[in-house]
Amino acid sequence: MTHRGREVRLHKVPRGVPGPDSFLIADVEVGEPVEGELLVRNQWMSLDPAMRVRMGGSGGSIGAVPNYEIGQALDGMAVGEVLASTVAGYEPGDLVVHSQGWRDYARPRPDTPGHRVAKIPADEPLPPQSYLGLLSLVGFTAYVGLYLVGGLERDETVWVSAAGGAVGSLAVQIAKLNGSRVVASAGSADKVAYLRDVLGADEAFDYHDGPVGELLGKAAPDGIDVYFENVGGEHLTAALDALRPGGRIALCGLVSSYNAAEPPPGPTNLFAMVSKGITMTGFLAVQYAQHMAEYRDLVRGWLAEGRLDYRETVTTGLENAPQALIDALAGRTVGKVLVDLR
């Protein structure tokens, strides 16, 4: 049996901010799975700012994850229902998370590490799309950056940039749950109000309201101990000035450079790392996968106690996924960005 569906392909490498013409939606036929494959009807897909890096034109890549190729379907994490299986342990009706998003139908291989296939437990109390956000590497990234990389202690101060996003908003809350002082920054007054009034950040500011260094200085006049880095550029420069001796930077992302047509200049105050003994560590959460179970147990407990506020920006329809990614890159979304494909 053949299924007709759609997939989103990279049409051209963007220079700067991607536009709708960077994408192409193609009709495709998807056959039955061959040995070692599942046939999955996708229900949800994840959109992440780092996808912009994989589109090319920004001078970067994500570790061993290859960039997208012109004319080929994009990929990313998705949740779907198994329609047919040739793999023991997977049956029609099972829900799985896998890495072949950006399409209606997928044929992932559980034995291929890059396909990242995992069955969602039938008794999971949280909705399936949680495996693209709270219970995924997205949420886990906040935990890893704060504690396994940043070494944040209860009596310390952390600054979280891009704090209105999926990772940043969770980092703010997890740090507060641990008893730390949290400074958060974002790109709009509405996000600042959300961070301060809903998530409980001790201080929050809109980075558009002035030089970032000055805004950070007012929010943390005594300095910071940990910087959760999502932005780069002027934000990183400000952090280096504000960090106390022995400060740590957990380098999660550099979203300010993702749409840059030319490589942006680096900070001019890097010597602060020498004079103050600052360490900066880049990381991918998957490098700490052995801690995922403990993180998920914590999250389920916090949710049961009503101690986490988790928000999603949901777009409906595969045809609207490209614009949803463009909006996410422009900072027009809050929390985890998802596409409902049902």
UniProtKB/TrEMBL annotation:
> Which SUPFAM superfamilies does the UniProt record give?
GroES-like, NAD(P)-binding Rossmann-fold domains
Note the Gene3D superfamilies from the entry: Medium-chain alcohol dehydrogenases, catalytic domain, NAD(P)-binding Rossmann-like Domain
What protein name does the entry list? Enoyl reductase (ER) domain-containing protein
Q: Name one Pfam family in it.
A: ADH_zinc_N
User: InterPro entries from the xrefs?
Assistant: ADH-like_C, ADH_N_2, ER, GroES-like_sf, MDR_fam, NAD(P)-bd_dom_sf
**Would the keyword Cell membrane turn up in this protein's UniProt record?**
no
Q: Which SMART domains match?
A: PKS_ER
